[in-house]
Amino acid sequence: MQATADTTVLIVEDDARLQAILAKGLQSCGFPTHAAGSLAAAYEVLRSTAVEVIVVDLGLPDGSGWDLVRWATSRDERRLRTIVITAAYGPLEPEPQLRPDACLNKPFAIDELVRRITVATPDLSADRQPVARNGQ
Fold first, then answer.
1. What does the alpha-carbon distance between residue 20 and residue 70 come to, in Å, rounded to a whole number?
2. In terms of pLDDT, which residue wins out, 93 or 17?
3. Which domain does 72 fall in, by range?
4. How much is the pLDDT for 128?
5. Per-residue model confidence (pLDDT) at position 100
6. Is 56 helix (H, G, I), strand (E, B) or coil?
7. pLDDT category, 5, cuts 50, 70, 90?
8. What phi and psi, each to the nearest 5 degrees, are found at residue 40?
């Protein structure tokens, strides 16, 4: 399965090995990627880089991945798609107003992540500007 043109993915995962595996797998399917190992690093990437999809782990060293989902979904302009990944077992219980585009329990196949990204991004336009301004 190949990527939609210009669908850039930010991978927010503190496990460096898993982060590298996800980046390599997505890149092999044609997705440009950026990576961050913490919320702070993710916000830094978002200040300077245009991304369309955020793949975020829930357990990060400086907070919860739900914080990034909350930020992404609270924007007036719904350009950022969010996919939550977690090692937690059972159903995920986010706050009712948080609606990530997909949730995946680890381990998962890269093909499943690619499918979820493709389903979440059918309407992306060519307008690719950095999404965070003046901090977070």
1. 25
2. 17
3. 9-120
4. 36
5. 87
6. strand
7. low
8. -60, -45
* pLDDT tens sequence across 49-67: 989 999 999 999 999 999 9
Alpha helices in 9-126 (DSSP H): 16-28, 39-48, 65-73, 110-120
For the four alpha carbons of 76, 78, 80 and 85, in that order, the dihedral sign comes to positive
- Is pLDDT above 60 for 20? yes
For the chain, the residue count is 136
| Tokens coding 8 | 């850039």
CB 46 within 8 A of CB 10: yes
3-class secondary-structure state, position 53: strand
Number of domains in the chain: 1
> Looking at this protein, which amino acid is placed at residue 131?
V
pLDDT at 95: 65
What gap in Å lies between CA 120 and CA 21, rounded to an integer?
21
Q: How far is 85 from 59, CA to CA, in rounded Å?
A: 9
Residue 127 resides in a domain: no
90: alpha, beta or left, given left = phi > 0 and alpha = psi -120 to 50? left
CATH number at residue 96: 3.40.50.2300
